[in-house]
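Last lecture ended with a question: if I hand you only a sequence, what can you say about the shape of the protein? Today we answer it with a concrete record. The protein is Cytochrome b-c1 complex subunit 7. Below, first the input exactly as provided, then the predicted structure, then a couple of comments.
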Amino acid sequence: MSSFLKAFIDPKKNFLARMHMKAISTRLRRYGLRYDDLYDQYYSMDIKEAMNRLPREVVDARNQRLKRAMDLSVKHEYLPKDLQAMQTPFRGYLQDMLALVERESKEREALGALPLYQRTLP
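The predicted structure:
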Protein backbone atom coordinates (compact mmCIF):
# COMPACT_ATOMS: atom_id res chain seq x y z
CA MET A 1 0.00 0.00 0.00
CA SER A 2 1.38 3.38 -0.93
CA SER A 3 2.23 5.95 1.72
CA PHE A 4 -0.37 8.32 0.25
CA LEU A 5 -3.12 5.73 0.67
CA LYS A 6 -1.98 4.92 4.21
CA ALA A 7 -2.10 8.60 5.11
CA PHE A 8 -5.47 8.99 3.40
CA ILE A 9 -7.18 6.25 5.46
CA ASP A 10 -5.41 7.00 8.75
CA PRO A 11 -7.86 8.76 11.11
CA LYS A 12 -4.96 10.47 12.88
CA LYS A 13 -3.88 12.24 9.68
CA ASN A 14 -7.09 12.70 7.69
CA PHE A 15 -10.08 14.68 8.93
CA LEU A 16 -12.57 12.78 6.72
CA ALA A 17 -11.29 9.40 7.90
CA ARG A 18 -11.65 10.62 11.50
CA MET A 19 -15.23 11.75 10.83
CA HIS A 20 -16.05 8.41 9.20
CA MET A 21 -14.58 6.46 12.12
CA LYS A 22 -16.57 8.56 14.60
CA ALA A 23 -19.81 7.97 12.65
CA ILE A 24 -19.21 4.21 12.56
CA SER A 25 -18.34 4.22 16.25
CA THR A 26 -21.58 6.02 17.11
CA ARG A 27 -23.70 3.59 15.10
CA LEU A 28 -22.00 0.54 16.61
CA ARG A 29 -22.32 1.91 20.16
CA ARG A 30 -26.07 2.42 19.70
CA TYR A 31 -26.53 -1.31 19.28
CA GLY A 32 -23.64 -2.51 21.45
CA LEU A 33 -21.68 -4.04 18.58
CA ARG A 34 -17.99 -4.25 17.79
CA TYR A 35 -16.57 -3.72 14.32
CA ASP A 36 -15.46 -7.37 14.09
CA ASP A 37 -19.07 -8.46 14.72
CA LEU A 38 -19.89 -7.24 11.21
CA TYR A 39 -17.83 -9.96 9.53
CA ASP A 40 -20.10 -12.62 8.03
CA GLN A 41 -18.82 -16.17 8.38
CA TYR A 42 -20.76 -17.21 5.27
CA TYR A 43 -19.00 -14.61 3.13
CA SER A 44 -15.55 -16.18 3.29
CA MET A 45 -14.27 -19.57 4.33
CA ASP A 46 -11.27 -17.80 5.93
CA ILE A 47 -13.60 -15.91 8.24
CA LYS A 48 -15.43 -19.12 9.12
CA GLU A 49 -12.13 -20.87 9.89
CA ALA A 50 -10.97 -17.91 12.03
CA MET A 51 -14.28 -18.01 13.94
CA ASN A 52 -13.83 -21.74 14.57
CA ARG A 53 -10.39 -21.12 16.06
CA LEU A 54 -11.55 -18.47 18.53
CA PRO A 55 -12.24 -19.45 22.15
CA ARG A 56 -15.84 -20.44 22.87
CA GLU A 57 -16.36 -17.50 25.27
CA VAL A 58 -15.45 -14.98 22.57
CA VAL A 59 -17.84 -16.56 20.06
CA ASP A 60 -20.63 -16.70 22.65
CA ALA A 61 -20.12 -13.02 23.51
CA ARG A 62 -20.25 -12.17 19.79
CA ASN A 63 -23.48 -14.11 19.31
CA GLN A 64 -25.00 -12.40 22.34
CA ARG A 65 -24.08 -8.95 21.00
CA LEU A 66 -25.60 -9.80 17.61
CA LYS A 67 -28.83 -11.09 19.20
CA ARG A 68 -29.12 -7.96 21.34
CA ALA A 69 -28.52 -5.73 18.31
CA MET A 70 -31.17 -7.54 16.26
CA ASP A 71 -33.64 -7.29 19.13
CA LEU A 72 -33.01 -3.56 19.54
CA SER A 73 -33.30 -3.03 15.79
CA VAL A 74 -36.65 -4.83 15.59
CA LYS A 75 -37.95 -2.75 18.50
CA HIS A 76 -36.61 0.48 16.89
CA GLU A 77 -34.68 1.25 20.08
CA TYR A 78 -31.07 1.93 21.06
CA LEU A 79 -29.05 0.92 24.09
CA PRO A 80 -29.41 3.27 27.07
CA LYS A 81 -26.88 6.11 27.06
CA ASP A 82 -24.97 4.74 30.08
CA LEU A 83 -24.46 1.38 28.32
CA GLN A 84 -23.50 3.10 25.08
CA ALA A 85 -20.73 4.92 26.93
CA MET A 86 -19.27 1.60 28.10
CA GLN A 87 -19.08 0.05 24.61
CA THR A 88 -15.74 -0.47 22.86
CA PRO A 89 -16.59 -0.77 19.16
CA PHE A 90 -13.03 -0.94 17.83
CA ARG A 91 -11.61 -3.47 20.29
CA GLY A 92 -10.86 -6.28 17.87
CA TYR A 93 -10.96 -9.98 18.54
CA LEU A 94 -11.04 -11.47 15.04
CA GLN A 95 -8.42 -9.55 13.03
CA ASP A 96 -5.35 -11.37 14.39
CA MET A 97 -6.83 -14.83 13.86
CA LEU A 98 -8.13 -13.87 10.41
CA ALA A 99 -4.67 -12.62 9.38
CA LEU A 100 -3.16 -15.93 10.58
CA VAL A 101 -5.68 -17.99 8.61
CA GLU A 102 -5.13 -15.90 5.47
CA ARG A 103 -1.34 -16.27 5.82
CA GLU A 104 -1.73 -20.05 6.20
CA SER A 105 -3.95 -20.34 3.13
CA LYS A 106 -1.51 -18.24 1.04
CA GLU A 107 1.33 -20.43 2.24
CA ARG A 108 -0.60 -23.59 1.33
CA GLU A 109 -1.32 -22.15 -2.10
CA ALA A 110 2.35 -21.23 -2.62
CA LEU A 111 3.42 -24.75 -1.67
CA GLY A 112 0.84 -26.31 -3.99
CA ALA A 113 -0.99 -28.10 -1.19
CA LEU A 114 -4.69 -28.83 -1.25
CA PRO A 115 -6.94 -26.28 0.46
CA LEU A 116 -7.54 -26.87 4.13
CA TYR A 117 -11.27 -26.68 3.52
CA GLN A 118 -13.44 -26.97 0.46
CA ARG A 119 -16.25 -24.55 -0.26
CA THR A 120 -19.63 -26.25 -0.28
CA LEU A 121 -23.05 -24.91 -1.13
CA PRO A 122 -25.43 -24.75 1.84
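Comments.
1. Residues 105 and 115 are 7 Å apart (CA to CA).
2. DSSP finds six helices and no strands in the chain.
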